[in-house]
Amino acid sequence: MGSEWIRGRSDFDIPHRARVSAAYRTAGKYPIGLGLRYRFRSGLPFTPGFRAGVDANGDGSGRNDPAYLDLNTPGMSSVVSDNACLQGQAGLLERNSCREASNHALDLSASLGIPMGSSGNLEVTLDAFNLVATETGLVDRAPPAD
Fold first, then answer.
1. How far apart are CA 141 and CA 54, in angstroms?
2. DSSP conformation class of 49
3. Cβ 80 vs Cβ 90: under 8 Å
4. DSSP letter at 88?
5. What is the pTM of this model?
6. Of 123, 110, 107, nearest to 30 (Cα)?
7. HSE of 74 in the Cβ direction (CA atoms, 13 Å)?
């Protein structure tokens, strides 16, 4: 399996990230600032495999077994058609051929300037992260069954 997997996508591949920010600040003795930040990250790559705990290849690890796609297995055509990353593959699945769903998040920032005499303002800031965010977590690497 070693030389075949050299061609696959890297485990560290994250091809797209973006961030858009907007901020507004008032003038005056007690300036108020408001900020909004939207973040996007494309999904991480993964190799479709067996669920954790299944040691299909008998190597003693139940966390590293890539799936074997037998197109003659009943119901497999619907699994393949529902998962674009499986299309065009057969046999041992290609390394990191699938991707998690993209991640989106919205953050908010608010600040208040407090006068500190002639030395300027003390700024107190409150940041709230992931006010609206897509769910992330452990990826089930097994292709979904019908």
1. 12
2. B
3. no
4. T
5. 0.64
6. 123
7. 0
pLDDT on residue 141? 58
Q: What percent helix, strand, coil does the chain show, rounded to 5?
A: 10, 40, 50
Q: Measuring CA to CA, how many Å separate 43 from each of 82, 88, 101, 102?
A: 18, 21, 5, 4
pLDDT digits (tens, 9 = 90+) for 77-96: 888 887 788 888 888 777 78
Give, for 81, the enclosing helix (H) or strand (E). helix 76-82
- Report the alpha-carbon distance of residue 37 to residue 34 in Å, rounded: 10
Cα dist from 109 to 22, 35, 59, 86, 134, whole Å? 10, 5, 50, 42, 19
Q: b/e per residue, 45-62, with b = 16+ CB within 10 A?
A: bbbbbbeeeeeeeeeeee
- Beta carbons of 41 and 17 less than 8 angstroms apart: yes
144 or 97, greater pLDDT? 97
Question: CA nearest 32: which of 95, 91, 109?
Answer: 109
